[in-house]
């Protein structure tokens, strides 16, 4: 893998209803989520998220009754690349982070779930590329393209400590900021030469430090209409962001929070089969 250390290389939706998630994100984003579990998932309900360009945007983990009883809830999670999962776990726990899932070997690589010292959770992963594709890049994240995650945003109780943490453990840089007045600076962060997102202070009333992931869409107004038409909830209305595009936040019908980002125009849209009729009816 040629992605720099600290890159977001995969995204995962944990949900109580993968079939309903397929219909919802098919209508809103245009993804096609498999109708059955991946046979390689060893009994776990894990499904791939396919983009219309043929690539994968991430995966969907169906939460079992035992997982839900143990406290798991619908949520989006990001995977950060590290070439040494065990060394990363050791260094993070030594600096006050926590382990939520021990390092595990899967056919696709070694993973673990951690949280930073302020409590924001994420996965770390050292992937195993397919044979003959050892030099492949992950393109689950793209700063510009629809149907990819385009922005990764950390709301945290201590932005300065979080910047130092991710700089130390994942080689991130922090260059540039946007002044949000009383909320303080919205600090941009980079992995290698790529701007991957931002770190900001926790907003009043937010329950805990957390990562939010903004999915690229072809048209923010069409996507926002599809959110509510398909049982989701709008948390914040679309607002213009630097560069002229628009971003909004919502929750899917199972309760997982997500962001959307994209232009405001009538662009051609090819929904996935699950959402075709609904999405066609939502065009303005």
Automatic annotation (TrEMBL):
Pfam families: Glyoxalase. It comes from the Bacteria. Residues 260-284 are annotated as: Disordered. Residues 7-127, 145-263 form the VOC domain. This is VOC domain-containing protein. The lineage of its organism: Bacteria, Pseudomonadati, Pseudomonadota, Alphaproteobacteria, Sphingomonadales.
């Amino acid at each position: 893998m040629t992605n720099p250390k600290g890159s977001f290389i995969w995204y995962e939706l944990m949900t109580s209803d993968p079939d309903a998630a397929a219909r919802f994100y098919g209508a809103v984003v245009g993804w096609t989520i498999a109708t059955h579990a991946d046979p390689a998932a060893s009994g776990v309900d894990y499904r791939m998220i396919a983009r219309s360009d043929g690539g994968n945007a991430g995966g969907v983990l169906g939460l079992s009754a035992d997982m839900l009883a143990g406290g798991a809830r619908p949520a989006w999670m990001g995977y950060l690349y590290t070439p040494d999962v065990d060394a990363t776990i050791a260094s993070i726990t030594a600096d006050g982070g926590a382990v939520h899932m021990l390092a595990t070997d899967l056919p696709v690589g070694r993973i673990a779930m951690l949280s930073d010292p302020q409590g924001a959770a994420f996965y770390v992963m050292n992937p195993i590329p397919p044979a003959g594709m050892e030099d492949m890049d992950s393109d689950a994240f793209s700063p510009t393209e629809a149907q990819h995650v385009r922005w990764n945003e950390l709301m945290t109780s201590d932005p300065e400590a979080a910047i130092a943490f991710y700089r130390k453990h994942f080689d991130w840089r922090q260059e540039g900021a946007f002044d949000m007045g009383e909320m303080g600076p919205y600090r941009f962060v980079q992995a290698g030469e790529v701007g991957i997102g931002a770190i900001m202070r926790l907003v009043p009333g937010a329950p805990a430090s957390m990562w939010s992931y903004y999915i690229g869409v072809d048209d923010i107004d069409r996507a926002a209409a599809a959110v509510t038409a398909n049982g989701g909830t709008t948390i914040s209305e679309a607002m213009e962001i630097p560069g002229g595009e628009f971003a909004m936040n919502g929750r899917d019908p199972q309760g997982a929070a997500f962001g959307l980002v994209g232009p405001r125009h009538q662009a051609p849209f090819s929904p996935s089969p699950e959402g075709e009729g609904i999405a066609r009816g939502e065009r303005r």
